[in-house]
Amino acid sequence: MIGKIAVLIAGAGPVGLTMAVELTRYGVPVRIVDKAAARTDKSKALVLWSRSLELFERTGIVDRFRAAGIICHGARMSTGTELIADISLDGVQSPYPFALMIPQSETERILESHLEESASRSPARPS
User: Fold this and answer.
1) Residues in a beta bridge with 19
2) 14-25 vs 104-121: helix crossing angle, rounded to 10
3) Mean pLDDT, the chain, integer
4) How is residue 42 annotated by DSSP?
5) Would you state the torsion angle of the CA atoms of residues 111, 105, 89, 56, taken in this order, to the nearest 10 degrees?
6) 76 with 85: CB under 8 angstroms?
């Protein structure tokens, strides 16, 4: 009998970890590789948008993100003396009509934690 083939995910950043979460949700085994030995403490991404939060809702982890982040309903930009933009996200057609300000390292920590919990609930698979 042939076992399931694991999917190799190159990169343990938010995109790779999100892909791993989605694949494991459907029972697909994954292996994640990354050139870095550990999660960075530098943030290359500072926000989760509505669609990402909708995806995490399907996975059951959206509340973890909301608890760790800061909800932002809009932004104002100025030259220092003149307002040049006033942006509202309140009209976004989503259950999450806002941007969630959250450091990349925290996003990765939440996704890694969920993957570890999922692995401990799954039956052991032969290597």
Assistant:
1) none
2) 20
3) 89
4) S
5) 0
6) yes
The model carries a pTM of 0.84
Q: Model confidence over 67-115: pLDDT tens digits?
A: 999 999 999 999 999 999 999 999 999 999 999 999 999 999 999 999 9
Tokens of 87: 């942006």
| pLDDT at 126 > cutoff 90 | no
For residues 2 and 73, what is the distance between their CA atoms, to the nearest angstrom?
50
CB-based burial, 70-90: b 16+ in 10 Å, e otherwise: eeeeeeeeeeeeeeeeeeebe
CA distance 102 to 76: 19
| 62 CA to centre of own chain | 9
First to last CA, the chain: 14
The DSSP symbol for 34 reads -
pLDDT at residue 124 tops 80 = no
